[in-house]
Fold this sequence. Notes:
Elements: H1 2-28, H2 46-66, H3 73-83, H4 89-97, H5 100-112
Amino acid sequence: MTFNLFILLFSLATLLVSALIMLIAIARLPTTYFIKEINENRKSSMLINTVSLIVGIILIILGIIMLFTPGQGIISILIGLTLLPIRQKNHLINKLIKIKTTQKTLNYLRKICRRHSFNFNQP
């Protein structure tokens, strides 16, 4: 019985923490983030790349789990992809961004933080 309670509390804590982190990350992005060109050759330190890779992979794994459990699975996967220091991520991000539900959810989360909506239209 106590193990089940622990799992329940851990799941709730994970859900709340991931929702808070996603809300902060989405609020900090510029409104043109999904339409501007991403500089693939930007220079970053190895530590930043390693931390981005680890956090990105964790968010993607949690996002996949949240596809089948309560939580924002697609949004977690999207944020995880943006953190990965790989070139192929833009193709996957563009596919996820074209989903109208994803756009509505991202703009709703921005509205909660009193930020302007994302601009998804290509220039």
